[in-house]
């Protein structure tokens, strides 16, 4: 029984030389399908949800998140193309009829498919890391966003700072060095959004 088992394993090992390429092609086909799905999903999310989610971010965070998402999209597309190359091969200009020639071509093609799959896997991992990085930038920045800046014009001048509180009695803003100023509503002439308080008098 043990001898027959060993003989069968030896036969399978010899046959493995002839089945490596088809097995790798099937594996690459699975990777190609998965990467294509991820790329399509990312494209849909960018088109449908990306704009309204990123508009509320500060400029640097919006630029970082968009850059990471573009990098992820390009990486996933590259991975899909590499997996497609591994799954279907490249067009050959000649038909290999000789046994040794076919054997050498198969060995080279197995190496090419393995390299393409390794690069496709790396592109997939880096693409997903880029997506997660973009989400983290969006979440962390949105959670830590500052209060809006306003220019408040009163009868005696203009005050600029972050809007903290507005009610019927007063308007409170936070100025530089965390100094809070409360202004009676009766003294407020106008309130306007401000990009920066550097030029405020």
Structure description:
The protein has 201 residues and is of the alpha+beta class. It has two domains: 142 residues; 45 residues, Roll (SH3 type barrels), CATH 2.30.30.100. The protein contains three helices and five strands, in the order H-H-H-E-E-E-E-E. It has a five-stranded antiparallel sheet, with no helix packed on it. Helix 2 packs antiparallel against helix 3. The mean pLDDT is 76.
Key terms for this structure?
201 residues; alpha+beta; 5-stranded antiparallel β-sheet; 5 strands; single chain; 2 domains; 64% helix; 3 helices; SH3 type barrels
- Report the helical percentage: 55-70%
User: Which structural class fits the helix and strand makeup?
Assistant: alpha+beta
Rg for CA atoms: 31 Å
The beta-strand count equals 5
Low-confidence blocks of residues: none
Beta-strand content: 15-25%
Major beta sheet summary: 5 strands, antiparallel
Order of helices and strands: HHHEEEEE
Using the alpha-carbon principal axes, give the shape: rod-shaped
Number of domains: 2
Q: Tally the helices.
A: 3
User: Whole-Å distance between the termini?
Assistant: 96 Å
Placed side by side, the strands forming the largest sheet appear as: 4-3-2-1-5
Q: What integer is the average pLDDT?
A: 76
Would you spell out the secondary-structure blueprint of this structure?
Layout: H1 2-54, H2 59-88, H3 99-143, E1 149-154, E2 158-166, E3 170-174, E4 180-184, E5 188-193
Antiparallel strand pairs: 1-2, 1-5, 2-3, 3-4
Helix pairs in contact: 1-2, 1-3, 2-3
């Amino acid at each position: 029984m043990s001898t027959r088992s060993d003989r069968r394993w030896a036969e399978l090992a010899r046959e493995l030389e002839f089945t490596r390429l088809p097995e790798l092609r099937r594996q690459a086909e699975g990777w190609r399908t998965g990467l294509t799905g991820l790329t399509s999903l990312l494209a849909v999310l960018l088109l449908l949800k990306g704009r309204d989610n990123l508009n509320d971010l500060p400029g640097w965070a919006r630029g970082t998140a968009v850059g990471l998402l573009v990098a992820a999209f390009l990486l996933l597309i590259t991975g899909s193309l590499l997996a497609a190359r591994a799954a279907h091969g490249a067009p050959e200009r000649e038909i290999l009829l000789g046994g040794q020639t076919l054997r050498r071509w198969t060995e080279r093609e197995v190496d090419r498919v393995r390299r393409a799959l390794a690069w496709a896997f790396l592109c997939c991992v880096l693409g997903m890391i880029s997506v997660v990085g973009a989400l983290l930038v969006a979440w962390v920045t949105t959670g830590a966003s500052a209060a809006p800046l306003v220019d408040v014009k009163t009868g005696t001048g203009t005050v600029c700072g972050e809007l903290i509180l507005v009610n019927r009695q007063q308007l409170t803003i936070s100025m530089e060095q965390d100094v809070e100023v409360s202004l009676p509503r009766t003294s407020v002439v106008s309130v306007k959004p401000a990009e920066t308080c550097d030029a405020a008098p």
